[in-house]
Amino acid sequence: MRKGILVGAAALASLIALGVHFANSPHPRSGLVSNDQQARGSVAEGSTNRPRSGPVAATLQSPEVDLLREVLGLMARSESGDAAASARIAAIYDFCWQYARSPQAFHSDIEAKKGLRKDLSSNFDRLESQVSSKCSGFVGRGIGLRDVALFSTRAATQGSLAARVNKLAGPILTGQTPDSDVAALASQALRSRDVEAIAALAPLMGVASAGRADALGGLPAGSALAEAAWNTAACRMGRDCGPQSQAVAQMCLSGGINCELRGIEDFYRRDVLPPGDSARLGQIVEQLTKGTGP
Amino acid sequence: MKKFVLVGLLFAGVALAGSIVTLDGRKAPYNGLSNVQGTDITADEMIRIAGMTQAVATYRLTHGVTTLPAGSTIRMVWPDGSAEKGSVITPMSGVGTVPMPGTQCSTLVQCGWLNDTI
User: Fold this and answer.
1) Among candidates B91, B100, B103 on the partner chain, residue whose Cβ is nearest the Cβ of A257
2) Contacts of A208 in chain B (CB under 8 A)
């Protein structure tokens, strides 16, 4: 109970802090450009999706900076209320901010991981190459974890179901969110076939929900098998879950899991689930993707 | 015999449920992480989130992919010896583990964790 209160207070404090940050920012997108006034103008151009001059436009000549290009293209949509655009910007910032802050520190962290898992050394090299090629355009532009939270909060406010799941993760995990609300949220994600929301629900429906599995209206919950089913269902409904995907890279970089860089379904089948659960996984996934429950 | 096995399993389960993993930022491998170095309980919350998330990922990398699932609680000891608890939210994001308000302490003695295994 006390733990629930503490985490709830943490979530509230975060929202208040973010609200203050937001209110004090002349432009919510300042995380992208706060260190570079010249770039601020270029982002304004980028918000029309047609940057024509200045350092950002010059940077975009390089084919490697596709995620910067994507953010510039999404910014105007985000500012005009497009929840999916805001959620995607949050996901890109989440993927890029550590490299953008300091490629040297990022490299140092990669080297440390290689030291801990020599068997995965080539995979970490591949990850570093993937991140540097996708995120180099953000270096020196001042994006940080606060900008991830900022755009995620904006996306939730604009109606993104996945962002709402992320914002409710703390209260859900500590039992502060009524079981009926969790079930409704999960059912809504399935009904709308929102693959990012379904994937965001996966860790919440895993072993963390063991105590409430029976109260979730028959939805799979309370085990690693359930987590695997939600994540795999999102993949089969169209989420990019392949070995080269941003989702797989994020699992390793932020979560320290799946650093073998397998596709997500393959990861669960080979590294998480006991052999007997593999057949059951297929059945539960099929039920989820059909929206019929277990 | 069967009864003893069951009782043993029960005790093991209770012990497991009650254990909290401590990630000691004064020691390897956590003291070398970019978001842990120089961080303490007075740092900006986002920096502490980044440090905790990075430390939890490092723990999973060395202890197994099913360790510290969402819903777990950790103890984070920062390089200066200050400490706090964190709540594991997700392994899928940089906002993966968040500090728990009211758990911050300047020293392990103040936390009452000095005699605990860390």
Assistant:
1) B91
2) 69-71
Are B65 and A203 an interchain contact pair (Cβ–Cβ within 8 Å)? no
Looking at beta carbons, which residues of chain B come within 8 Å of A10?
87, 98-101
Q: CB-based contact (8 Å) between A17 and chain B?
A: yes
* H/E element, A16: helix A2-24
Contact indicator for A248, A263 with CB cutoff of 8 Å:
yes
Q: Can you tell me the ipTM of this complex?
A: 0.85
pLDDT tens digits, A263-282: 999 999 999 999 889 889 99
Q: Do A255 and B71 touch (CB under 8 A)?
A: no
Name the one residue in this structure whose structure tokens are 């169209």: A238
The CA distances from residue A2 to A8, A175, B59, B103, B112, in Å, are: 10, 11, 26, 11, 18
For chain B, the average pLDDT equals: 87
pLDDT digits (tens, 9 = 90+) for A21-49: 333 333 344 345 433 333 332 222 223 33
The structure tokens 């304004």 sit at A44
Count of alpha carbons within 13 Å of A274, Cβ hemisphere only?
2
Contact between A183 and A216 under an 8 Å Cβ cutoff? The reply is yes
Cβ of A117 within 8 Å of Cβ of B49? The answer is no
CA distance B70 to A178: 18
Cβ contacts of B70 within 8 Å, gap of 6 or more: A169, A173, A203, A204, A206, A207, A208, B88, B89, B90, B91
Tens of pLDDT, residues A183-202? 999 999 999 999 999 999 99
